[in-house]
């Protein structure tokens, strides 16, 4: 199926965390991340992603309450593997829960979850989330050991960390892209649905969107930043267009 044109539609999940970051910088209710989620839906997003951090630096519990109650698109709740976040996920039952590494000292997520090393600790979280009907995803580095750990943990979905690829240039970027391509192919072989995200922009999204075994991209910070200049609707529509163009061209090349 990796070369099958059946994977035509590449889903776009829009992360609204940093709308909340701007709101929290001053306090009050503006700008409203739930309003941003609704606008993202109108602009062509396939899902909404929100990371409820332990320190609540952007998305709040009230935001999650409202997203569950007011948004029709699937909600992907990014969460650390903690008792508090597990309880919140089980109470709200989002469409998906993506388990991510989390440190208070980091500005943003610094890398993938070491699922291979933490298998024993993560097993209960993947089992309880899955048993509740929540689609479990692991945010990991594009490495075979991490993919195999996801299978062992019973997670049906992985999200490959694209940060190193986005930050690199020249031959180094090509090397990181090759790792993502290989990992996405391996994920399919292992029966995992493969997503990707972190740091993707208009300039970097095309080569990742062209990978046929990736089903979904999750993009947030760049879109929210670009919205300052062009508006959120315009930023999402342009990203959607670039993704669709790259995927269509890739399918055309394989079928030629």
From TrEMBL:
Binding site for 1-deoxy-D-xylulose 5-phosphate: 17-18, 53, 58, 108
Record's keyword annotation contains Cell division: no
Annotated site location: Transition state stabilizer: 159
Catalytic activity: 3-amino-2-oxopropyl phosphate + 1-deoxy-D-xylulose 5-phosphate = pyridoxine 5'-phosphate + phosphate + 2 H2O + H(+)
Protein's pathway: Cofactor biosynthesis; pyridoxine 5'-phosphate biosynthesis; pyridoxine 5'-phosphate from D-erythrose 4-phosphate: step 5/5
Gene Ontology BP annotations: pyridoxine biosynthetic process
GO molecular function: pyridoxine 5'-phosphate synthase activity
Enzyme Commission designation: 2.6.99.2
A Pfam family per the record: PdxJ
Subcellular localization(s) per the UniProt record: Cytoplasm
Catalytic residues, chain numbering: 51 (proton acceptor), 78 (proton acceptor), 198 (proton donor)
Keyword field: Cytoplasm, Pyridoxine biosynthesis, Transferase
Database matches in InterPro entries: Aldolase_TIM, PyrdxlP_synth_PdxJ, Pyridoxine-5'_phos_synth
Any single Gene Ontology cellular-component annotation: cytosol
Amino-acid positions noted as binding 3-amino-2-oxopropyl phosphate in the UniProt annotation, renumbered to this chain: 15, 26, 199, 220-221
Chief localization: cytoplasm
Keyword Transferase belongs to the record: yes
Similarity annotation: Belongs to the PNP synthase family.
Function: Catalyzes the complicated ring closure reaction between the two acyclic compounds 1-deoxy-D-xylulose-5-phosphate (DXP) and 3-amino-2-oxopropyl phosphate (1-amino-acetone-3-phosphate or AAP) to form pyridoxine 5'-phosphate (PNP) and inorganic phosphate.
Assembly mode: Homooctamer; tetramer of dimers.
Protein name: Pyridoxine 5'-phosphate synthase
Source organism (scientific name): Oceanibaculum indicum P24
């Amino acid at each position: 199926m990796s070369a099958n044109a059946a994977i035509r539609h590449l889903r776009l999940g829009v992360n609204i965390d940093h709308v909340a970051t701007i709101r929290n910088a001053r306090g009050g209710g503006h700008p409203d991340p739930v309003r941003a989620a609704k606008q993202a839906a109108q602009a062509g997003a396939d899902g909404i992603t929100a990371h409820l951090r332990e320190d609540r630096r952007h998305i709040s519990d009230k935001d999650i309450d409202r997203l569950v109650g007011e948004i029709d698109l699937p909600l992907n709740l990014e969460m650390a593997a903690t008792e508090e976040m597990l309880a919140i996920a089980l109470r709200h039952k989002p469409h998906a829960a993506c388990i991510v590494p989390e440190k208070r000292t980091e500005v943003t997520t610094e890398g993938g979850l070491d699922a291979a090393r933490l298998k024993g600790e993560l097993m209960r979280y993947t089992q309880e989330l899955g048993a509740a009907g929540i689609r479990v995803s692991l945010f990991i580095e594009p490495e075979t050991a991490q993919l195999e750990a996801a299978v062992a943990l019973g997670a049906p979905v992985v999200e490959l960390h694209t940060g190193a690829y986005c930050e690199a240039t020249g031959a180094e970027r090509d090397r990181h892209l090759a790792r993502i391509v290989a990992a996405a192919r391996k994920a399919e072989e292992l029966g995992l649905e493969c997503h990707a995200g972190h740091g993707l922009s208009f300039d970097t999204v095309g080569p990742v969107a062209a990978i046929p075994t990736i089903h979904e991209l999750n993009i947030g910070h760049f879109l929210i930043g670009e919205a300052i200049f062009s508006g959120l609707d315009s930023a999402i529509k342009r990203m959607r267009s670039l993704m669709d163009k790259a995927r269509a061209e890739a399918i055309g090349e394989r079928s030629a």
